[in-house]
Amino acid sequence: MAGAALARAAQLWSLLDEMAENEPQAYRRLLQQQRAEAELFCALPEPHLCLRARPAGGVGRPLFINVCSWKRVPAPKDPADPTPVSVGPLEEVSGEGDLYNVIDIAYNPDVLQRGQENPEKMEHLIHLTLKFVEERCNLTLSHLYTTESFKLKGSLEMMQQRLRGRQRPTPHLSQNTKKELTLDELLHTLEAEDCSSASVLLTEESVMQSKGHLIEEIASTEMPEKLRTPVYEMITVKDANKKPLKIELRIELPKVSSVSECDLRISKDDIVIEVPGKYKLQLDVPELVDEETTTAVFNKGKRILFITVLVAKPDP
Questions:
Q1: Phi then psi for 250, rounded to 5 degrees?
Q2: Pairing assessment for the beta strands 98-107 and 63-69 based on DSSP bridges
């Protein structure tokens, strides 16, 4: 496993070196994009305002809703699109005579900024938030609420821990589109992230137009669209004694314009290449190979990827 990881790392550096040499502008853009996305991924939720609500009938603990600003939550692409939200768990707090429930809700900063500029939009967002909490936590809340003078109920550290531990927001989701990744697939060959949690979308229009469900919960592990199998040719190069020396693979990728789009994984007995949203090819190699000897070259003009890997030496 360690050898395979080193091979993937070597392959990644090889592709990046090739990109830096042949496509310097694209290479700089990739570095800038990854730096920006790293800053976005490391961003922490910040308190924006705190709502106080009570169960209908006034019986039960008060509920504090920490409405937070978080850059990792995507903004809706269009005003008519659902509003993405990240939500933490509902917690009961007791201590020093203070008994209450608390839940943390995070929106993209742009969503909250529009609410600050337009009080009607903020009131609508708060109403949507209360309805969402009711459905999410199976509660019935009073229509009366108060906006507290403080921005956060509880500690900043606990709020951030609850939100970050709950889920990783999935960007660019809507009712009619599949998941789109924000990080280049190439840089994900060395690290697998847990995407088993769900992304929640609030449908603002449904508050006014329907009494049905106000949220749509979409699993981040949706089935991807079927990818095309590219045209390829694989040959085994042999020496004069017909002993296998290396495997050569030629793959036609007419819809690929840059090597940065390709995700290549090689083990001792198979080769997998994937271009998100375009192609996927998985091949069993006819001979066991030494994945650490892999080289890959992408001909940008002909849109062809050439892969060469040496056959593994037999164990002594």
A1: -115, 120
A2: parallel
- The answer to whether the Cα torsion of 278, 282, 287, 289 is positive or negative is positive
Nearest CA to 281 out of 229, 223, 225 is that of: 229
Going by C-beta distance under 8 Å and a sequence separation of 6 or more, which residues neighbour residue 295?
Answer: 14, 307, 308, 309
Q: Please list the residues that pair with 263 across neighbouring strands.
A: 274
CB distance 173 to 219 below 8 Å = no
Task: Report CA 205 to chain centroid distance, whole Å.
Answer: 26
Displacement of CA 244 from its chain's centroid (Å): 42
d(CA 76, CA 125): 13
Q: What is the largest CA-CA distance in the chain?
A: 89
Output the six-digit token pair for 230.
């590219």
Residue 99: phi and psi, rounded to 5, are -115, 120
Q: Which helix (H) or strand (E) holds 109?
A: helix 109-117
- pLDDT band, residue 6 (cuts 50/70/90): low
Summarised one tens digit per residue, pLDDT across range 254-282 is: 998 887 888 888 888 889 999 988 899 99
């609420």: which residue's tokens? Answer: 145
Task: Using alpha carbons, select from 147, 146, 153, 141 the residue that is nearest to residue 58.
Answer: 141
- Integer Cα distance of 85 and 72 in angstroms: 10
pTM across the whole model = 0.48
- The DSSP output letter for 57 is T
Sheet architecture: strand order including 304-310: 232-238, 244-252, 304-310, 295-299
Contacts of 122 (CB under 8 A, 6+ apart): 115, 116
**Minimal CA–CA distance to 100: which of 91, 111, 110, 113?**
91
- Sign of the dihedral defined by the CA atoms of residues 154, 160, 161, 162, in that order: positive
